[in-house]
Specification:
Low-confidence stretches: none
Number of helices: 13
Oligomer: single chain
Length: 345
């Protein structure tokens, strides 16, 4: 019969062994954490789509092939094209500003600055420094992308393999997580369901709407003669996350620019396009996309995107809001715990 001191020694030894193993596992998997996290996020978002296709076609590999083709043609290729176009436009704009060859921007900035300076004398919109910072950031990141083309291809292959495994074994993995978790099964299911809803509502309800608004704004900028329409459309994606003003941060100065350059018809057209198309799409889509999800204030989404970009780089656009959604989910679970404790006491 094992005595108490022997049991304690075994327990402590197992804890030390388990912690050591966990640390080693972390170092083994750390080079692939971004890949794993991205694959998990994609699996949450694409799982309903995958299950519907699978129920119709019956074959896992065929359903997954359709998912991959969808991602390639509607996400990866457009993203590559838009990224290259933005780089070209930022480069041109940066060179023009360095050579003081942007009178249209100077007019617009002065028009905005002058009334504000009556109240805040030191107010200044130093657009050249912002553009320079964006250009340098793109240069540093595009250099990494070009020099690591083979690595990026391998990462994509690993993401695809991991995504297939996650989608195919979704129910088994969920059951395994519940079995290993020390929490009651109802809490495990609640956490997973809330996290699923939170991820989908933040990605669809905020980021997707922001991307659509930026795309529509970019089309309007191109149609009505705004220089560098792709770049300003990308800026609109970020500005649409700002509560209260949103896309107006970019669209209104664009209208002012057209007015200052005597393009009154184009200015009126962009005003109508911005108000009726870009502005209203948010009101139409957001409630529909949020109805099955978790509503999150746009201010938190904005800071999570910006903070994610600082800590994780380009993938922070996705990782930031997902971390926010996980934290909000845990807060909600904590509230449930607190209420149940109070009811028992």
């Amino acid at each position: 019969m094992i005595n108490t001191s022997s049991q304690k020694a075994q327990t402590y030894f197992f804890i030390v062994l388990f912690l050591l193993g966990s640390i080693l596992m972390f170092f083994v998997f750390s080079p692939f954490l971004n890949i794993l996290i991205l694959a998990i996020i994609l699996s949450f978002s694409l799982s309903p789509f995958y299950e519907k296709i699978k129920s119709f076609l019956k074959y896992d590999w065929l359903a997954f092939s359709i998912i991959i083709l969808f991602l390639i043609f509607f996400v990866i290729l457009p993203l590559i094209f838009l990224s290259w176009q933005i780089f070209q436009e930022v480069q041109t704009l940066y060179i023009q500003m360095a050579n003081n060859d942007t009178p249209y921007l100077e007019k617009t900035i002065s028009f905005i600055e002058d009334p504000i300076k009556n109240f805040i004398p030191n107010f200044s919109i130093n657009l050249s420094s912002y553009i320079g910072g964006i250009f340098n950031w793109i240069i540093s990141n595009i250099g990494v992308l070009i020099s690591s083309a083979t690595q990026i291809f391998m990462d994509l292959v690993l993401i695809i393999i991991t995504l297939f495994f996650l989608l195919k074994n979704n129910k088994k993995l969920k059951k395994m997580i519940i079995e290993f978790s020390p929490l009651e099964d109802k809490y495990d299911n609640l956490i997973l369901d809330k996290l699923d809803m939170a991820i989908n509502s933040i990605i669809k309800g905020s980021l997707l709407v922001a991307v659509i608004q930026g795309l529509l704004a970019g089309i309007g900028f191109w149609a009505f003669g705004i220089p560098s329409p792709t770049f300003w459309g990308a800026v609109t994606v970020v500005s649409s996350l700002v509560p209260g003003v949103g896309t107006a941060i970019v669209v209104v100065p664009a209208i002012i620019y057209l007015l200052l350059n005597s393009s009154f018809i184009a200015a009126f057209g962009l005003f109508i396009w911005g108000a009726l198309i870009v502005g209203t799409i948010d009101q139409i889509m957001r409630p529909f996309l949020y109805k099955k999800g978790v509503s999150t204030h746009p201010l938190f989404i904005l800071f999570s995107v910006l903070g994610g970009l600082v800590f994780f780089g380009p993938l922070g656009i996705i990782f930031g809001p997902i971390i926010l959604s996980l934290y909000l989910t845990l807060l909600e679970i904590y509230q449930i715990f607190s209420k149940e404790k109070q009811s028992y006491s």
